[in-house]
Amino acid sequence: MATPHRDKHGRPLVVVTGMGVVTSLGEGKTDNWTALTAGRSGIHRINRFAIDNLRTTIAGTVDFVAAEPFCAPALSEQLALRAAKEAVAQADIGRPGDFPGALFMAVPPVEMEWPQREALAQAGKRNGETSYGTLLAGAETGRFKAWHELFLFGTVAARIQDRFGTKGSPVSLSTACSSGATAIQLGVEAIRRSEVSAALAIGTDGSVNPESLIRFSLLSALSTQNDPPEEAAKPFSKNRDGFVMGEGAAALVLEDYDHALARGATILGFVLGCGEKGDGFHRTRSSPDGAPAIAAMREAIADAGLTPDDIDYINAHGTSTPENDKMESMGCLAVMGERMREVPISSNKSMIGHTLTAAGTIEAVFSLLTIGEGRIPPTINYKVPDPTIPLDVVPNVARDATVGRVLSNSFGFGGQNTCLVFAAEPA
Q1: Is Transmembrane helix included in the keywords of this UniProt record (predicted)?
Q2: Residue 317 annotated in active site
Q3: Is 177 a known active-site residue?
Q4: Which listed residue (71, 274, 354, 419) is catalytic?
């Protein structure tokens, strides 16, 4: 019997055997990677709903996927379904509808949006006034009952479980902009504890709507440089003014290395390290000293059994907000030292926008493609360098490079910081 493969901490090694992705650049790894490395933007003027009087009128919406308007769970489900189908098909794992492992799923915060609220209120009126009894009765029938089921927090994951036959109770999580990375982390940890031999990790977000745009605008978080749309997201540039919302989903099939080898699976890469650190400084702002983000990066590298000198490339969180980019730059310099001035770091959010709950999983797919293809996606729209960010941001044009190990950062509102290390080979 072969000796089990273990990492430097004595835990089962975790590999990726399947990946799927959907963004505003297109559906599937091939279309996304082609557009990404060509420096093409998927950000455009919003045409899904009226944008009159909105300060921000652009986003990286996924307009080629049909879903009920103003219904983030419905679109999030469709995006997740497409990404998961691609990932599971590539992994060629189990029988159709019988995935041999658990589901860990990052989904956006779920709440009924204004069109549904107004329709429900109208249905609850009797003699021109809203009756609580009539409201409850109406909620139990027809489309209102369907809405009730759809807007339950765990519904999207439950429907994905029904489709793919994942085992156990699906885990739904929402940890702001680090959610997708956290879903991967939970899958990795379950495999390391030998609770499962395989896991399906998904991050999905289809929540571009007027209310979310208004809320982020009130936080002064969004770019208002609407024209031209494709130039609005400019991470690490001096003239950056906020992030651009995006939509998308990605899925990864994670496996115990020995389980994957035994069934002859193709190994796409290793998930060597996970780092997580909470930040209690503010509900939306990051700690000015960057300490929690620094701790998360260091923890991920140490968890991988590596040192900062082993990292070849950093997939930045890189939102294009003035504060985040400065904090991330400072954090990377603290972790990597002077070598950071030579380590390439780039942000795909310059092209797809900030996909929020899905960002960590989408960027995991792009990180693994960077390793596999030997090509680093650029940070586009980099025309005005910021002298306070002295980094190699792979400006505007993709770069061929040998990349063996990637640190992927995800820093979210509410102090959620999750970092992952991907590699071509075990440490």
Answers
A1: no
A2: yes
A3: yes
A4: 354
Q: What percent of the chain has pLDDT over 70?
A: 89
The pLDDT value given to residue 142: 60
Q: What is the pLDDT of residue 287?
A: 75
- What domains sit in the chain, N to C, each tagged with a CATH number? 14-111+152-423 (3.40.47.10), 114-150 (no CATH)
pLDDT tens across 154-208, in order? 889 999 999 999 999 999 999 989 999 999 999 999 999 999 999 999 999 999 9
Predicted confidence at residue 382, as pLDDT, reads 98
Catalytic residue among 71, 317, 332, 419: 317
177, 274, 332, 419: the catalytic one is 177
The yes-or-no answer on residue 274 being catalytic is no
- The pLDDT assigned to 14 comes to 98
Asked if residue 152 has pLDDT above 80, the reply is no
Cα–Cα distance for residue pair 310/308, rounded to 1 Å: 5
Report pLDDT digits (tens) over 47-76: 999 999 999 999 999 999 987 767 788 899
